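Why run this: before we spend reagent on co-expression, it is cheaper to look at a predicted model of the complex and decide which construct boundaries make sense. The entries below are exactly what would go into the expression plan.
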Amino acid sequence: MKIKNFSIIYIIWMFIFTIIPLALIFIFAFTDKSGNFTLENILNVGRYSNVFLLSIGLGAISTIICLILGYPLAYIISKISSSKQNIVIMLIMLPMWINFLLRTYAWMTILENNGLLNKFLSIFGIKPISFINTSGAVVLGMIYNFLPYMILPIYAAIVKIDKRIVEAAQDLGAGKRNVFLKVLAPLSLPGVISGITMVFVPAVSTFIISKMLGGGSNILIGDLIEMQFLGSTYNPNLGSAISFVLMVLIFISIGIMNQFDDSDENFDGVKLK
Amino acid sequence: MKKDTIISLKNITVSFNGNTILKNLNLDIKNKDFVTLLGSSGCGKTTILRIIAGFVQPDSGSIFFAGKDVTKLPAHKREVNTIFQNYALFPHLNVYENIAFGMRIQKKTEAEIKNKVQEMLKMVSLSGFEKRNIANLSGGQQQRVAIARALVNNPKVLLLDEPLGALDLKLRKDMQVELKKIQQKMGITFIFVTHDQEEALSMSDTVIVMDNGNIQQIGSPQDIYNEPTNAFVADFIGESNIIDGIMHDDYLVEFAGRKFKCLDAGFAKDEKVDVVIRPEDIEVTSPENGHISGTVTSVTFIGVHYEIIVDIDGFKWMIQSTDSQKPGDVIGLILQPDDIHIMKKSEHSGEYGDYSAFSDEMYEIYEENLLYDCSCNVSEKK
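The model came back. Tokens follow.
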């Protein structure tokens, strides 16, 4: 009874800060400046398809690299003694305690034309290379900032696998390769899917990273939306329309991701739907 | 009917974190035998099983499988299969795929797999369960899937690590019968680990009683029960009154203040011995007709019979009888020569056999601890 009353607080909270803003985006996206219904904003989004493609492309590349880096690391961490596991997990989370902007600024000073990296290379007589303001720098920034979100859910999924299930597979004749392919990989899949979602979604919609590391040539969806609300091209209707389209695209991609996770929810709680 | 040896452990020593679990252990297991490793938790019985399976590497010693040294062979290359304590079924696969797992690894054809899985399902009475999710099965059904999965590769030896521990009593009894049937039908060796002495006696051809990393006795269930080699075995298998005695001569022993005829010989003159008398062998009579007499201190009805505790010169004896007695009454006991079993004194002498501290409550606490210890053990041994 009491707990039920408490839930009203959350319902009100969600209504004010989730439902209403979403509704506003929806309304803005389908109205013009004077408040009349129009599809023009949505149709105009098509003009920025190259921005969408770049965002999704860079987001996907970062996500794939995060997975390639993150899975083996998560697996190795799950193998070491549990006291060391806690230390390593803490080290992985440590950068997340530092402000996101600050971390990205730090990369600027490293990658700049007369930054730390080029200064280091000049010792060996290598001429300055322009690292910053490239899509590579944006991808690097995404990987650096979002890698923990890939490692942690995969790690959580792997440590939850009962060691006796692995032994059972070995007992039935599975060597290292088969143990991984037939047992570890499918059982850690929910973690992988959470990880991909948790990296891909913020990577696609980021604007700080591309702004600071990508220069003017790497405008992403996030930058585009920001410009409509805060920049010179003030147009909240178009901004809302872009947000709306982005949201739909993300929903679709999460839906596709969850298709790969065909397992029933009764063996693993890590699930986004 | 001499059977050949299939598994042979030679001078096996194992320790975890400096604790020696097994020391210089030697053991031969005969082909097509139903062998039970029986002992309380921490006695090393599960470790023996894990050494045979290949999950534990001994610090020293060798394992031979059908004459070949397999000490260095990894688990997935050994011709043994295991039924794990918690079954360890694959949660992401359904019943059919769980059973098919071993054959898929061996790259058998789909038709072959289908045939064999159907045959296995039939054997464990789970036909029609192919598509079921593992999590939706009862404990007994999961147990059956585990059996089918382990037998699908036609192993020469099946290892069973307390497989019935999680089942309720009735189901456990049924599964005991069924496992025994499967073993006879398949004609393969079963190595069964349990701490339940009744389970061990009812299923096995050979029982190996273990304590503290040492084998105490190897023998048929009848041998183990009727001719325990020391006080530990006598106490662990069934109920026993273990009394200090002196062997005056062949076939003549003195205990409880008088001399008895017995069937044992070959001891030194006046050697101190342990005398075992099973509670169900003692016949109750009136004080004047009995060989010895004492006062009844407690009577407990446990279903098949009464457990009567009798104080004889300060030593509490247990008697199992279908007739009840009144606490406080003096009764006489008759002991026939074949009721008396003489054992040499051992390190275990004096630890067991007196029922003065006996109560049902104590017994329950002991059983619970046993279960608790077992679950701890498994998680410790990586």
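The two ends of chain A are 28 Å apart (CA to CA). Residues 14 and 20 of chain A are 9 Å apart (CA to CA). Bring this page to Monday's planning discussion.
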